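Section 3.1: Structural characterization of target chains.
Under the original work plan, the team committed to producing a structural model for every single-chain target entering the pipeline before any wet-lab resources were allocated. The record below documents one such target. The sequence was received from the expression subgroup and is listed exactly as submitted; it comprises 102 residues.
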Amino acid sequence: MVKLYGLSSEQLSKQDHYDFGMRAVKSVLVMAGKLRRKDDTVPEDILLIRAMRDSNVPKFLEQDLPLFYGIIKDLFPSVVVPYIDYGKLQKAIELELRNKKL
């Protein structure tokens, strides 16, 4: 996690709302704890990567996303982290976005 945040702070664009310090580490650990309590069968490396990804991706600018995903892939080359299928919720959100021409 420390290496991920170090590389992210060096390679991603400089934005005031990006935080790669202790506050970000705490957020990831809290999220990882929630994920662990929700499903204790998930391997720890996948759980931590999901927590790092899910707690950081929403705040990143679009051009920084490929860089962030690349850093994760470089640091954890053999780990495949499945994305969660939100099913009906995802379809409803996409429909609403199309209806509002967003």
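DSSP finds five helices and no strands in the chain.
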